[in-house]
Design a protein that fits this description.
Strand order of the largest sheet: 1-3-2
CATH class of one domain: Mainly Alpha
Shape: elongated
Largest sheet: 3 strands, antiparallel
Radius of gyration: 25 Å
Number of strands: 7
Length: 263
């Protein structure tokens, strides 16, 4: 969900479902680790919701395309949840506003060790004028009522939500980033997003330096290190057994392939 919301916001600025985005940029928008973003990409690709058009280059991010899997509707079968164009009603519960959720989900207040994405979904479903009950929030956000009630209590303690006569409202007209910073500070997660961006920038700068140095070295006739050491290549070519290299195809010394499971 966070992956799709982040990509939709980028695609909206790009003017279409085709967009460029790196894993690090995606992780920053999602407010998650790089590995989480990579696993999420794979799941979306397996579901047919995302397709990678190219792998990018040393200076450009990869190009992606948001897609919709083709589904055949069985005659007489009820439509899927979420396909109606009608606005959310009381029967559907209080559905989170996607734009609001995309704007706040990466904040430190919604880190895993703070209010989490559940807290962000609840806030994105609340309104300052129209209250919502626990049951409506649970139905609209897809969480158990006990989980919603516990999150609402924590949000109320941080001054983000106000409870009145069984209904819950936003504490202010808009979600205050000042209050979010206070909630993140109390949870001990304030600054996590900044540290993530700083780490990513250092990684990008290190990669640029590595690419520049590699090009300069190759222009002077430098040959990159082989993945398979030369002594191992010679031993295998002579028919000797090398510990640790059993089951590997080393025909291409730059890309050894594990084949033992196949054979």
């Amino acid at each position: 969900m966070k992956n799709l919301l982040a990509r939709l916001s980028v695609a909206e600025r790009a003017g279409g479902f085709e967009h460029t985005l790196s894993v690090r940029q995606l992780a920053e928008l999602m407010g998650s680790a790089d590995s989480t973003a990579q696993l999420s990409n794979k799941r979306l690709q397996d579901l047919g919701l995302l397709r990678q058009l190219d792998r990018g280059s040393e200076s450009d991010s990869a190009t992606w395309l948001l897609t919709r899997p083709v589904q055949t509707q069985v005659p007489g079968a009820p439509s899927e949840v979420g396909t109606d164009t009608a606005p959310p009603t009381r029967q559907m519960g209080r559905v989170p506003d996607s734009r609001t959720l995309a704007a706040i989900m990466a904040h430190d207040a919604f880190h895993y060790f703070a209010h989490g994405v559940t807290g962000a979904r609840i806030l994105a479903a609340l309104d300052v004028m129209e209250g919502a009950s626990v049951a409506e929030l649970a139905q609209g956000c897809g969480h158990h009522p006990t989980t919603v009630r516990r999150r609402l209590q924590a949000l109320e303690e941080d001054g983000l939500v106000v409870g009145l006569e069984g209904l819950y409202y936003l504490a202010e007209l808009e979600i205050s980033h000042c209050r979010l910073d206070g909630a993140a500070e109390r949870a001990g997660t304030l600054g996590r997003a900044s540290l993530r961006r700083l780490r990513h920038e250092q990684q990008r700068e290190g990669f640029r330096h590595w690419v520049t140095g590699r090009r300069q070295a190759m222009s002077r006739g430098w040959v990159p290190n082989l993945a398979v050491p030369k002594q191992v290549q010679r031993a295998l070519q002579q028919g000797h057994a090398v510990p640790g290299w059993d089951g590997w195809d080393v025909g291409d010394p730059m890309r050894p392939v594990w084949i033992d499971d196949v054979t």
